[in-house]
Amino acid sequence: MNTIPNLTMADGRKLPQIGFGLWQIQAGGEADVVRHALQAGYPLLDGAYRYMNEKAMGEGLRASGVPREEVFITTKIWNNEQGRAAARRSVERSLRHIGVEQLDLCLIHWPVPTQDLYVETWAELIAMRDEGLTASIGVSNFNEDHLDRLIAETGEAPAVNQIEIHPQLQQPEMRAVNAQRGIVTQAWTPLGNGISFNAPPVADVAKRTGKSQAQVILRWHLQLGHAFLPRSSNPERQMQNLDIFDFELTEAEMQAMTTLDVGLRTGPDPSVFKMM
Fold first, then answer.
1. Domain containing 97: what range?
2. For site (Lowers pKa of active site Tyr), what residue positions does UniProt give (predicted)?
3. Does residue 145 form part of some domain?
4. Secondary structure of residue 135 in the 3-state scheme
5. pTM for this structure?
6. What is the CA angle 83-45-106, rounded to 5?
């Protein structure tokens, strides 16, 4: 089994570079999917209340036989639960649903600037971290202006900013913004739903190495140095997505990958997204 590298967050805690994402995992068998992912060697589970699978996350954790202290658990506060009281209720409910005493990381899912509650929510997350409800705190889908407002008004930067990154949306500017503020970047939808699988920079490396296109893209993420969250309900593919440590992209191949960036989002624009 491969040893997954860790990235050090600004609070001094370790974040596994590779985690298992639970977004859009097929309903009905989530607990078994989680169980197999943990048994396959994923050290991090990334869930959210909005995904409606926090209970299955906990069930899969307990069924896996993997000790709780060896699993990094992330969840998120949804848009309609921002604000001090609502955010606290959200975190307390997540703890009950997952069946753990402390989260490893809790994120604000989206900034939703139109409701102007993300700073208040962040202040409550700081309080809940200090109380021990969650060990680390961060955000998801925050832009530079959102991050800078959090820091200016509370004096504290998020440990993590989880954003969409894949070959056709590489976000070098936001990765740099995060790094400049000591924030770890974590990529969601790292495979971009397969839209780049047949692109020559990906297909050529797959042909040279004998690896799948998915493995090539995940290795690209690994070499860029940020954290990322592949997901699959297929046990074989779960294991394949971890089998990326026996090959490398050359400098020329990494450079060729940059040509695929066309700014194509598969998800919403954080500047305007406000779904409740």
1. 6-196+222-248
2. 76
3. yes
4. strand
5. 0.97
6. 20
Q: Which two tokens stand for residue 229?
A: 């969250």
Can you give the pLDDT of all 276 residues of the chain as single tens digits?
578 999 999 999 999 999 999 997 766 689 999 999 999 999 999 999 999 989 999 999 999 999 999 999 999 999 999 999 999 999 999 999 999 999 999 999 999 999 999 999 999 999 999 999 999 999 999 999 999 999 999 999 999 999 999 999 999 999 999 999 999 999 999 999 999 999 999 999 999 999 999 999 999 999 999 999 999 999 999 999 999 999 999 999 999 999 999 999 999 999 999 887
**267 domain residue, yes or no:** no
Q: Which residues are catalytic?
A: 51
- For residue 226, say whether it is annotated as part of any ligand binding site: no
- One-letter identity of residue 7: L
Amino acid identity of residue 174, one-letter, is M
Structure tokens at 5: 């590298």
CATH of the domain at 146: 3.20.20.100
What CA–CA distance (Å, rounded) separates 147 from 188?
18
Q: Tell me which residue has tokens 């990322």.
A: 228
Report d(CA 42, CA 127) in Å as an integer. 29
Q: How far lies 45's CA from each of 84, 249, 265, in Å?
A: 25, 27, 23
